[in-house]
Design a protein that fits this description.
- The complex is a heterodimer.
- Chain A is mainly beta.
- Chain A contains no helices and 11 strands.
- Chain B is an all-beta fold.
- Chain B contains no helices and 12 strands.
- Chain B starts with a strand and ends with a strand.
- Classes of the chains: A mainly beta, B mainly beta.
Chain lengths: 113, 114
Amino acid sequence: DSGVTQTPKHLITATGQRVTLRCSPRSGDLSVYWYQQSLDQGLQFLIQYYNGEERAKGNILERFSAQQFPDLHSELNLSSLELGDSALYFCASSVEYRVETQYFGPGTRLLVL
Amino acid sequence: AQTVTQSQPEMSVQEAETVTLSCTYDTSENNYYLFWYKQPPSRQMILVIRQEAYKQQNATENRFSVNFQKAAKSFSLKISDSQLGDTAMYFCAFMKLAGNQFYFGTGTSLTVIP
């Protein structure tokens, strides 16, 4: 158990819908990262927040957005969902905002029908 | 841009034997970090081992060790005394020292055979 929690574990929704994935980092970690793991594209970095502020952006679509709240939990919002958004979404956390080992949560499996 | 290549999509090893997983990377950076992550069937990502590029000594963590060849941009993982619980997907990852983004390889699926 890495100490990072993600909810829900599974999510099934329809195309065009919007969902919110939630992540609670390890106690004391200020940085949260979001990743997407799909079958055909491997593990892709989406976005990082540090102490409430966006720090880095990766291959995140404009339909996706994220935020980190004062209590340091983070939410990833996915809107206008498409079939291709079906994937495993991981959250990871670390103490600092760079050069630090990241600890991954169990992931949220999203299925868009 | 940084790329990470894992050329072995699947591997298998007999229980108690040793296996080596390969990883190469491409970067123009001089200082960076390299990681091996394990993803068992539960799909959770678990840190196996980490190597700082400025350290010449290869990292070890119990039965896991790496062979870090900076000039060749190679970072292989050796698993000794393989156990059934080692069955998982293994990902090699790169992070720039001045950055905070992971670049992952496509993974190697390892099966430990009883």
